[in-house]
C-alpha cells in the first residue's frame, strides 16, 4: 500500500470500527466466492474484520471466507484490496471469547494504535 493509503486505513481502522485492531501474524486460508482457497497471512484482526495478504485480486463487495487454524471458516466481505493486501469486514462479529483466544495464541505486539 502507498503511505497515504496506509495512513488513511490506519486512521479508519481505529475510528470507524467497533473494536481496536491487533497486529499479529496468523497463517490461514482465504477463499473468494467462486474461487479456490489460497494460503494467506492475517496481519491484523478485530472482532469486526481483518487485513491479510491476498495474492489473488479481490474486489470491493466480494464475499470471501477466512479459515484460521482450529476454527471454522469465517464469512467476510472485501472492503479494499491493494498491492496484494486485502481488508475485510466479517459478516458476523467474532465472539469476544474466540477473539481473545486467537489473540492469546498469536498476538505479539498487543492492540494496534496509530502514533
TrEMBL record:
<dbReference type="Pfam" id="PF07238">
    <property type="entry name" value="PilZ"/>
</dbReference>
<dbReference type="InterPro" id="IPR009875">
    <property type="entry name" value="PilZ_domain"/>
</dbReference>
<protein>
    <submittedName>
        <fullName>PilZ domain-containing protein</fullName>
    </submittedName>
</protein>
<feature type="domain" description="PilZ">
    <location>
        <begin position="16"/>
        <end position="93"/>
    </location>
</feature>
<dbReference type="GO" id="GO:0035438">
    <property type="term" value="F:cyclic-di-GMP binding"/>
</dbReference>
